[in-house]
User: What shape does this take?
Amino acid sequence: QVQLVESGGGLVQPGGSLRLSCAASRSIFSIWKMGWYRQAPGKQRELVATIISGGSTNYVNSVKGRFTISRDNAKNTVYLQMNSLKPEDTAIYYCYQSSSGGSWGQGTQVTVYS
Assistant: This one.
């Protein structure tokens, strides 16, 4: 089982930036897909961004051009760089990995206030 620990969330004003980190308990080199999801109060969890082992990325339309997902296999870490943050980005952000049936981190809170 791969354990994931997110960090980097916080409180930020609109237009600000945050970088989320997802540290894995073992090598992520062979993990096919890793990604970030988010869940806002009263809403279902939604995909934010995913990255495949070969480097291909996918983003929800609302964050395209503002967020960038990356993975550093040497550090066993996946990042989500979030720029030009908007109030609607407020949510708990969860890291995901696809190996062995998949697993999730505990989440990190991102709050963007007007």
